[in-house]
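Side project, low priority. Logging it here so it doesn't get lost.
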Amino acid sequence: MSETVTEVHAWALRAALEEFWQDPQPNRITGRVPGRIAGSEHDQLVPEGVSNPYWEIARQMPTDTIGDPWRKVPSPDPFFLTPDGRYIADRNTLCGLYSWSVCSPGDVAWIKERLGGRGIVEPGAGGGYWAWQLAQAGVDVAAYEPKERSENHHVDCDPWFPHIQRGNHEAVRQHPDRSLLLCWPTYGDRWAAKALAAYQGDQLFYIGEGEGGCTADDEFFSLRGAEWEDAGDCPAHVSYSGIHCYLTEYRRKR
């Protein structure tokens, strides 16, 4: 990609994070000095030859100084306030420029291993960040997004994946041999339920919050509960502080 607003933002934020870590300050609310994923036992390095700017930002962000007992991996805190009242990063901006769910190298490796050589079909791909990461790992991805960037208020970036096709949830019918990827389906919208109903394959990767959370709708969770069984969560998945996002594999019930 040529230099874009996204890349300018990435450079500026990484510079701000580098400056912060030269003299880390305590959280204005908790009074605690934060840690970070980078350099810790939970760090995940981007493979040689792969570009993952979102992860390079997330791993350098201050982590939640309170912690989440339900997670083994620390959570980057997009609402971290320095003593002088500055936010280090803003989640809404990061989500619009990259993806609504952080994509770690461990996520990509975990999905690829569980695919067992299959391809992926991703409806509602947005800017295609997850599609791009999987493609860099050698996964064959068919990504679809019904709206142009100018019409999609959830996306604020040029496409990360160059092969996004125009198409809605019905596109999954063309790919029964691929595994279905649904990443952070729009809250209260029926498209995720429609995509799951149209899909004829037997493997689903779902990235988002659970029932009652801020992704998908009741119809989706009802259908998933009736026809699919949980096959495990990705242990390497990283979620923002206060956001209950998980990467989970599901298999169709026999």
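Brief comment: Residues 5-22 form the longest helix (18 residues).
Revisit when time allows.
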